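Our consortium's second objective concerns turning raw sequence data into structural hypotheses that experimental partners can test. To show how far this objective has progressed, the report includes one record in full. It was chosen at random from the queue rather than selected for favorable results. The single chain below, 243 residues long, was entered without modification.
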Amino acid sequence: MQFNKTVPFCFFIFMLLGNVVFWSFSHKVKSSWANVPPVPSQEKASLLAFGDDELAYRYYATMLQNLGNTGGRVEPLKEYDYNALTQWFFLADHLNARSNAVPMLAATYFGAVDDNDKVRDILDYLAVVGARADGEKWRWLGHAVFLAKHKLQDNEKALELAYKLAANKSPDLADWARQMPAFILQEEGQSELAYKIMLNLLVSNVDRMHPNEINYMRDYICNTLLTELTHVDPPEFCGKIEL
C-alpha cells in the first residue's frame, strides 16, 4: 500500500497558516494583573492545605513574595493594594504566629514602597506582631520605628511605636530598644524627658548591662543630653567616663 504524502503535508500547511493567523491577532495581547487578590476567611485559607495551617502559611508566604510578577512583567510596589496586602499579612499571622518569614517580607520588601500611606499600613501590621514578648518579635517593632522616623519623617508616630517597643516584656529585648524613646525625644527638643529615661535605664539595669553599653549611655547622658540641660546637676559618674 503506497503512503499518500499529500494529506500530512496539507495538514502541516493548514496548521502553519492557522498559527500565523492566531499570532497576528494575539501577539500584542498581554496578561493583565488583577492586583492583590481578595483575602479568604481563616477557615477557607486552611482548607486549601486540607487543614494544615503550616502548609497554608508557606503557600501564602510564597504567593505574597511573587505577587506582581505576571506575564514576564514586574509591577512596582506603588501599584499594590496595601490595604488588601496587610489583610494577607494578618491572615498569615493567624496561620503561623511564630514564623518571621512574612514579617520580614512586610518590613524589608513591601516596606520599601515610596508611598507614605502604604507604609502606614505596614506599620499597623508590624506594631501588632512586634509587640509580642516571645522570641525576638520586638525587632519588627524596631523596624517600624525606623520606617516611621526615617521614611515617613513622622516623629510622633515613631515615638508612639518607640514607647511600645521599650515596654516589650521579652527577656531578649536589646538595650538600644529600651533607649529608643529617649533618642527620639532628644531630637524633638525634649532633652529633659530623654535624660530622665536614660538615667533611669542606666541606674535600673547597670548590673546586667555590658560595660560597653554602660559607657555609651554615660557618654550620651553627659556629653549629649546634659549639654542641652544647663539647669540640671550632672550625676557623679559624669566626671569619670571611661570610653
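The partners drew two points from this record. The longest strand covers residues 69-70. The chain has two domains: 38-167, 174-243. Both points have been shared with the crystallography group to help prioritize constructs.
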